[in-house]
TrEMBL record:
PANTHER family: ECTOINE DIOXYGENASE, PHYTANOYL-COA DIOXYGENASE DOMAIN CONTAINING 1
Record lineage: Bacteria, Bacillati, Actinomycetota, Actinomycetes, Micromonosporales
GO molecular function: 2-oxoglutarate-dependent dioxygenase activity; iron ion binding
Species this chain originates from: Micromonospora wenchangensis
Gene3D superfamilies reported in the protein's UniProt record: q2cbj1_9rhob like domain
Keywords linked to the UniProt accession: Dioxygenase, Oxidoreductase
UniProt protein name: Phytanoyl-CoA dioxygenase
Length: 307
């Protein structure tokens, strides 16, 4: 079988995380990258998402999944979330599929292959008191119980320098290594549907249970750089008091081994993900989280490609 081999230039190789960076990620659960996108690529992303917000689509989802985030102008000046932008817009996808992003993720996750899992376009309007701008503490694996992998990770990609005044993403250092306490399955509900104080409390309880201090680290991200976080790293973000919109994409990534699994919830139902009503089936009849239309491969190690 011939596959297209994503390759890196020598300049790109120099942008990969070092062994020390990979150790840091394993210990702390987050990594601030080097400049993985050129200014031209970031500007192209801004322009493509401007057109997306104006309604431009290359295709639309054939059905609307139950928990789809899909801001449209009728929702007004709240924080915007739009899922599946890599599916609906080729200009956005072209940049998100950059092999270098996958290669960085592969190093961090110690994986041979990286596929897109989801992409969410995010816009925090510059309204300092806007409650929807606050992202309560959560970790992404809570929404991914139907995924078998414990190594999934997210790249948070702002379209501009992004600091604390914009409400940048903030990591709870080392929290991916905590064991959970008191977790019931309400945590699988998205943070937008949940009480903020309850999530703050859950974070404090989990820290205490693990004898850990809560150390919150805002990711100060220069344009073209991105932060990566492990799927069990607690994170959230605050108000945008900058006077400018905070624009970004959360690029959720899966390692090659990830697959759908049955995960029973306490009410007897099975955990589900929006993909389950969209992607093709495996020969066993399960949702295929490797369906290239929704979950394209963006990186495969050379050894794996030639094997
Ligand atoms: O928008 C933010 O600050 C947080 C985004 C997020 O939850 C994520 O990237 O997983
Ligand atoms: Fe998240």
């Amino acid at each position: 079988m011939t596959t297209t081999h994503p390759t890196l230039t020598a300049e790109e190789e120099a942008l990969l995380p070092s062994d020390e960076d990979v150790r840091h990620y394993a210990e702390h659960g987050w990594y601030l990258s080097k400049k993985l996108l050129t200014d031209d690529e970031v500007d192209a992303l801004t322009a493509a998402t401007d057109r997306y917000y104006e309604g431009e689509r290359d295709r639309t989802l054939p059905v609307r999944p139950p928990k789809l985030a899909y801001w449209d102008p009728s929702k007004g000046p709240v924080q915007r979330h739009n899922d599946y932008v890599h599916v609906e817009h080729d200009g956005i996808a072209a940049i998100l599929r950059k092999p270098l992003i996958g290669a960085v993720a592969a190093r961090l996750a110690r994986a041979d292959e990286i596929r897109i899992f989801q992409s969410t376009l995010i816009y925090k309007p510059p309204i300092s008191g806007e409650p929807s701008n606050i992202v309560p503490w959560h970790f992404d694996k809570h929404y991914w119980s139907s995924s078998s992998s414990e190594r999934m990770l997210t790249a948070f990609i702002p379209f501009h320098d992004c600091g604390e005044e914009m409400g940048t993403i903030t990591m709870v250092d080392g929290s991916h290594r905590w064991s959970e306490t008191g977790a019931d399955d309400t945590v699988v509900r998205h943070f937008a549907e949940r009480d903020r104080d309850q999530l703050e409390e859950m974070l404090a309880e989990n820290a205490a249970h693990n004898g850990a201090q809560i150390r919150k680290i805002p990711m100060v991200i220069p344009k073209g750089h991105m932060s990566f976080h492990h799927c069990r790293t607690y994170h959230g973000s605050g108000a945008n008091v900058s006077g400018r919109p905070r624009r970004a994409i959360s690029l959720h990534l899966q390692d090659g081994d990830n697959a759908y699994r049955e995960f029973p919830l306490s009410d007897g139902s099975l955990a589900a993900y929006n993909h389950d009503v969209l992607v093709r089936r495996t020969p066993e009849g399960r949702p295929d989280y490797a369906d290239p239309d929704y979950c394209p491969v963006i990186w495969r190690d050379r050894a794996q490609q030639e094997g």
